Amino acid sequence: MKFSMKTAPLRASVAALAMGFGIGAAAAAEKADVMHWWTSGGEAAAVHVFAEDYDKAGGNWFNDAVAGGDAARAAAINRIVGGKPPTASQFNTGKQFDDLVNNHLLRNLDADAKAGGWEGAVPPLFLKAVERHGHIYAIPVNIHGQNWLWYNTGVLAKAGVPVPKTFDDVLADMPKLKAAGVVPLAASTQSWQEAILFNSVLASVGGRKMYVDIWSGKGDKDISGPVFAKVADTFKKLKAYTDPGANNRNWNDATAMVIQGKAAFQFMGDWAKGEFANAHQTAGKEFGCTILGASYVVGGDVFVFPKNKDPAQTKAQDLLVKVMMSKGTQLRFAAKKGSIPIRQDVDVKSLDICAQHGHELMANPANQTPSVDMVATPSVVGAETDVINKFWNDPKMSTADFVKKFAAAIHG
Amino acid sequence: MMKIWLRRNFSALMALSPALLIVLVVYVGCTIWSVRISLTDSHILPSDHYVGLHNYVRLLNTDRWNTSVGNLVFFGFMFIIASLVTGTLMAILMDQRIKGEALFRTIYLYPLAMSFIVTGLIWEWILQPTLGIQKMMRNFGFAHFHFDWINHSSTVLYTVALAAVWQGSGLVMAIMLAGLRGVDDEIWKAARIEGISPVRTYISIVLPMLGGAIATVTVLLALTVVRLFDLIIAMTGGGPGDSSEVPAKFIYDYLFDHQDIGLATAASTLMLGFVLVFIGPWQIWQWRRDVRGAGR
Amino acid sequence: MSRARKHLAARVAIYTCLIAMALFVLGPLYVMVITSLKHMSEISSGNILALPHIPTIAPWLVSAHKLSAGFLNSVKILIPSVIISIAVGAIAGYALQFWRLPGASLLVLILLIGAFIPYAVFIYPLVRILAFFGLFGTLTGIVIVHTTFGLPVMTILFKNFYSSLPVELFKAARVDGAGFWRIFASIVFPMSTPIVIVAVILQVTGIWNDFLLGLVFAGRDNMPMTVELNNIVTTTTGTRFYNQDMAATILTAAVPLLVYLVSGRWFVRGITAGAVKG
Question: What number of other Cβ atoms are within 10 A of residue C184's Cβ?
Fold first, then answer.
């Protein structure tokens, strides 16, 4: 390497300048590698709120997005095990990170929780969901309602069908909608969507207590009882009101059917709002949202913070926790994500009416129904999802047969 | 004696050491590891708590696994035979001194380069009665045209095979064409003098000479069959029900989504067993042939 | 006269079949291309086989922009992985074929069986092994991983190819006193060009399209392009943009397609030698 005499001083000063910046930046902001699976439009916009606020607070966000929860979690777990952990990593609210806690790979966040005043602000259900052996190991960042019924107001009006309040109403309305020439229920045979539908029925027809007992493995008697049989029958009856195109249909394509008035109903989580928003539709006008009964099935996402030998990383983690759990950030994040804020002590007037309704439901602990991920292990959820999938798609499978298989799979 | 042998083969052993290392550490070591895990109650991280054959019992009682294995065999035969026939037909046609061979070759090969996650979605659209071929035909005025194989348990595997053949036949074409080019011109001349028609020459003389090429292709296709899962995810999601589930998808789901590596490793151990049953005898036959060949 | 006519009929039949099959193969590409040029509203209205009403190239621009970040990383992973995996496979194939070492056929058997194991099962132990040597999350690490998973097919490919070479050449060289490397460098390798091209094509396709291994092993600063591709095309509860999915897939396939085009000629001739002899 040879510098010409003329440029050498210039280069030296540029280098010095760059170094100065480098040192400044390093002191102020250690890179925070945040792994998550929020890659689609609205999700990316939501995660950008975290990134923006984190950088504003003096952090240095590194967006480590990997689409698909299973791939993202697999990558995170392997990086933790391989000794190159991310600063923070996303999981679903629930038992997915149990093994990491038990192997002492995650940081204890008790001090952060105390400093942030989570107790009293975060619904107990969600605080308990991040607690293991009396300590906090993750931060819950949002609440997603999973048993929403979305409907096209125009289609319902035209068929002379009022907004249903129970599943019996739904079943009674279906023939009328079919006669009106629309697909009554926009559904899909993707097993996770079938599970969402099934759990909506279970929460509504069976009620919160039965739902929780069954999924936490304490409801063997309930499973063999008449109410569960009614749940199964109701679920299966809905199948007749779906269309053949439901096979492996992506959820957003089902939502598009409701948007375009080809279908009347869809059961889906509140992330579906993003699709309506993209089509320039407003809740309460072109489409509506309701929960059948009072059991509000909620889940969400958490971030865990792997233990780290580097104190700068630990500092970055503390700042991340603080920013993600702050009121302003929570509210702006929820607005973009379509979820509701994890903190009850925020003013949700700025959110849409579905989110407001959800926030209202959450205020009463008797409504708070945990998503299956929060009460059952991933392997039980997986096995039961397979059973539900089989039942929905196999016309020859009887309710009795389904009940037997469901009971067998619930204990892993 | 030993010393001389070692000195003469030292370089060969050195050269082979990376491969040897990989085989011992990964293919033997990790396989033993995964068999061990299959005997424990591991979820996402390995555990030391042994549960005997519990996972195997659980696996064999899982409907989805049993269906997956059956599907694999059915799909595998269909796919391998259809790809062989289509690819060979392509190769024979391309062997007729045609114009634009390079163009046809590239067209037949391009599906290989495309991600199945997206091409699978395209196939789903094409085969979905409300979107694809059926809709198009009805728009053309055939009001009763009916094609919804993808939505029925009994026919869905044919549609998966169709998409897989679409991707795989290009490779078969390339290898078979190469084989055809290697056939001696004298054989063709002789056949022509004998008055044997070209079609019969292909079927009864030329193709039997390509046994080696067919064997290679079959192994590559079998590899595709056993590893297949991304096409299934994108195209059918394993459905309707579990009628198009396959073992590789089962293993992937239980490994990453269901966090049940005990069951996943049990499944992969069983798969290993199947492969051994299929490949073992063939390899032993080859090995014995080699030994006889060496003794000659 | 009748013979000429018969010949003409045969030619017409041949070209008809070729074109029909080409159309079958191109069908999905047609759907992909037109979908990539449509607005989302048009796609969700369901006319997937129809030409776009109002074409747009916006999805292409968005996808190209998103993918550009990982392109260089993919190249950085691809080149050493392809070269090293082929070198290891070629040398192993040569050693196994010509230097009758004890246990050679057992090694080949293990490799062949190994090729059939879903590699996802091996990820965890490999992470531990590489982490032990400090290679996890590095470029070296991912190259080792690709070499490992490419080894079975590469070794078998080369071994089969070498089995079709005249063994007399090798024996003559031995008599002349040439050693292992000398024979490989001056006799065997120069004859391997066609099979090397085949290996290049197989490995470029496989490694370029790999997603999971790159994601886990390459480390945060070396994420391959397929991670971005996956971010575009995969989502569970997020919104999908099918037009971007299509554009991104075609763009990602560009590198292997280029390799097919450039080396098509050798591809065909190369496979001959490896495959013809069983």
Answer: 22
pLDDT tens by residue, B195-204: 998 889 998 8
pLDDT at B147 over 80: yes
- Mean pLDDT taken over chain C: 86
Q: Which of B89, B212, B290 faces C275 most closely, judged by CB atoms? A: B212
Report all structural domains of chain B as residue ranges with CATH numbers, in order of start.
64-246 (1.10.3720.10)
- Angstrom distance (rounded) from CA B169 to CA B111: 9
- Contact across the interface for B178 and C268, Cβ inside 8 Å: yes
Of the residues A191, A247, A372, A397, the best mutation for testing chain B's interface (the one with the most B CB atoms within 10 Å of its CB) is A247
Show me where the domains of chain A are located. Answer: 30-144+299-366, 145-298+371-409
Are C6 and C104 part of one and the same domain? no
Q: Which residues pair with A298 in a beta bridge?
A: A145, A370
For chain B, say whether A253 makes contact (Cβ under 8 Å).
Answer: no
SS (H, E, C) chain A: CCCCCCHHHHHHHHHHHHHHHHHHHHHHCCEEEEEECCCCHHHHHHHHHHHHHHHHCCCEEEEEECCCHHHHHHHHHHHHHCCCCCCEEEEECCCCCHHHHHCCCECCCHHHHHHHCCECCECHHHHHHCEECCEECEEECCEEECCEEEEEHHHHHHHCCCCCCCHHHHHHHHHHHHHCCCEEECCCCCHHHHHHHHHHHHHHHHHHHHHHHHHCCCCHHHHCCHHHHHHHHHHHHHHHHCCHHHCCCCHHHHHHHHHCCCEEEEEECHHHHHHHHHCCCCECCCEEEECCCCCEEEECEEEECECCCCHHHHHHHHHHHHHHCCHHHHHHHHHHHCCECCCCCCCHHHCCHHHHHHHHHHHCHHHEEECHHHHCCHHHHHHHHHHHHHHHHCCCCCHHHHHHHHHHHCCC
User: A145-298+371-409 adopts what CATH topology?
Assistant: D-Maltodextrin-Binding Protein; domain 2 (3.40.190)
Of the residues A33, A43, A84, the best mutation for testing chain C's interface (the one with the most C CB atoms within 10 Å of its CB) is A84
Domain identity same for C64 and C181: yes
The model carries a pTM of 0.86
Q: Is the dihedral of CA A393, A397, A399, A401 positive or negative?
A: negative
Helix (H, G, I), strand (E, B) or coil at B84: helix
Span A190-226, pLDDT tens digits: 899 999 999 999 999 999 999 999 999 999 999 999 9
> Average pLDDT, whole number, for chain A?
90
Residue type at B135 in one-letter notation: K
Which residue range(s) make up the domain with C10? 1-56
pLDDT at C266: 63
> Can you give the pLDDT at residue C278?
35
Q: What's the total number of domains in chain C?
A: 2
Residue B112 above 90 pLDDT? no
Complex ipTM above 0.95? no
- Name the residue among C18, C112, C264 with its Cβ closest to that of B93: C18
Residue A403 has pLDDT above 70, yes or no: yes
Q: Tell me, what's the pLDDT at B238?
A: 87
Q: Which two tokens stand for residue A10?
A: 């210039």
C221 CA: distance to closest CA in chain B (Å): 23
- pLDDT for A113-158, tens place per residue? 999 999 989 999 999 999 999 999 999 999 999 999 999 999 999 9
Express each pLDDT in A26-71 by its tens digit. 445 688 999 999 987 778 889 999 999 999 999 999 999 998 888 8
Q: Is C82 found in the same domain as C25?
A: no
Minimal C-alpha gap between A189 and chain B (Å): 7
Q: What is the pLDDT of residue C114?
A: 83
In CATH, the number for domain A30-144+299-366 is 3.40.190.10
Residues A285-321 have pLDDT tens digits of 999 999 998 899 999 999 999 999 899 999 999 999 9
